[in-house]
Amino acid sequence: MDSKIALLKEEFSAELKKAENTADLEAIRVKYLGKKGSVTDLLKEMRDLSVEEKKAFGQKVNELKAEVADAIAARTTELKELEVLKEIESMPEFDVSMPANITEGSYHPVTLVQRQCEQIFKTMGFNVEDYSEIVTDYECFEALNIPKHHPARDMQDTYYLTNGQLLKTHTSAAQNAIYKKYRDALINDNVPIKAIFPGRCFRNEATDACHENTFFQMEGVMVDKDISISNLIYFMKTMLSEVFQKDLKVRLRPGFFPFVEPGFELDISCLICGGEGCPSCKHSGWLELCPCGMIHPEVLKAGGIDPEEYSGFAFGLGLTRLVMMKYGIKDIRDLNSGSLKVLSQFTDDE
Ligand code: DAH
After folding, report:
1. What spacing in Å lies between the alpha carbon of 315 and ligand 1's midpoint?
2. Is the CB of 219 under 6 A from ligand 1?
3. Which atom of ligand 1 is nearest to the CA of 219?
4. How far are the Cα atoms of 195, 197, 277, 295 from residue 127, in angstroms, in the given order?
5. CATH code of the domain occupying 109-336
6. What rounded mean pLDDT belongs to the chain?
7. What is the distance in A from the centroid of ligand 1 to the CA of 321?
8. pLDDT at 43 (0 to 100)
C-alpha cells in the first residue's frame, strides 16, 4: 500500500510540473481528488484492511490528499500570476502617466461670423435680439403679409408641429414681436427701432451641397421717420465691407417678398475677381447676398406702427451663405456635420 502512495505521489508531481495553465491544473485536480480520482480510489481499497491498518493507511491517504490539494493550490497561484504577466507583455506598450490627447473645441464658423456681424451692428447702434425657433403661423406668415393660401408660402416648405405651431422658416418671423417691443419708445420718445436678430431656420429641403434643412439667417430692421433706401444701402455696405475686410460695391436688383415694398436682391461685387467677371460670379462681376427692402405698410400696421408716419427697411442676410463665402466652404452640409476636423479650421479669426 505504501508503495502505491509513493507511486501516486511521483506520478502527481511529474504531472504537476508539466501543467502549463490553470485549465491543466483543474484536470489534474479532477484526476486525483475527484469522485473517481486516484486518491479517492485508494480510500476505497481500504475495505480489505484490518482496523489497525485502516487507521494508519487512512491517515496517510488523508495526508496525501492534503498534500495534493496544497500543491495544486500553490501551482494555481503561480500559473495565474504567469498568465497575468503574459497578458501584460502581449499588450501594446503605453505610458499611463502620459496626458490624454484632448482635442480642443473651437467656435463654429457660423458663431464666429454671427458674432462679428453682431459687433459691427452694435457699433452702429443696433440691438441684438434673440428669438425662439418655434413660432406661430401668425408670426411666420400672417404678420408678414403672407395670408393663408398665399402662393409665397410654397417657397418655404414648412415643418409644422401637431399643435399648429411651426419651426420658423426665416428670421423675419421675429419682426412682429420686435416692432411691438420697441414701438412705444419709437412713438413716445422718438427712439428709432434698430435691431438685428440672428437665428436658426428650418425648411423641408432635399439636401445637397447648396441646400440644408437647417441654416442660419440674420434679420435686421430699422424703423423711423423718413427712412429710405439710401439708409438701407449705407448700412448693408458698411456691414459687408467690415465682414470681408474690403471696400465692397453693392447693387440692388428688384426682388419680390410680400413683406417689403419695394423688395430687392442685394448683390456685392465679386470677392474673387473684384467685379471683372470670373467663373465664381458666372462672369457677371456680382454675387447675390442679401434680400431686403422697404417694410410693407401692412407689416408695420401689424406691428402697431402707423405707416403714414413711419417707414423702415428690413433685410434677411443668409448667415450660412455668408459663412460659406467668407471661408470658401463648398458644401453647406459640412457646417452641420459636427466634424471637428472640418470645423476647427476656422478658428484663426478669434
Ligand atoms: N425672409 C426672407 C427669406 O428667408 C428673406 C428676406 C427678404 C428678409 C427680404 C427680409 C427682406 O427682411 O426684406 O426668404
Report:
1. 6
2. yes
3. 12
4. 5, 8, 37, 18
5. 3.30.930.10
6. 90
7. 14
8. 78
pLDDT digits (tens, 9 = 90+) for 189-238: 999 999 999 999 999 988 988 889 999 999 999 999 999 999 999 998 88
Evaluate: CB of 316 within 6 angstroms of ligand 1: yes
Position 42 confidence tier, pLDDT thresholds 50, 70, 90: confident
- Residue 301 corresponds to which cell in the numbers above? 400696421
The ligand 1 atom at the shortest distance from the C-alpha of residue 315 is 12
**Which residue CA neighbors atom 4 of ligand 1 most closely?**
170
Q: Which residue did the predictor score with more confidence, 124 or 248?
A: 124
Ligand 1: residue whose CA is nearest its atom 12: 315
**Residue 172 CB less than 6 A away from ligand 1:** yes
**What pLDDT digit, counting tens, does each position of 300-329 carry?**
999 999 999 999 999 999 999 889 888 888
Taking the domains of the chain in order of start, what are their residue ranges? 2-90, 109-336
Above 70 in pLDDT, residue 350? no
**Best probe residue, ligand 1, of 236, 239, 257, 313 (max atoms within 8 Å of C-beta):** 257
Residues 6+ apart with CB under 8 A from 163: none
**What residue's CA is closest to ligand 1, atom 13?**
292
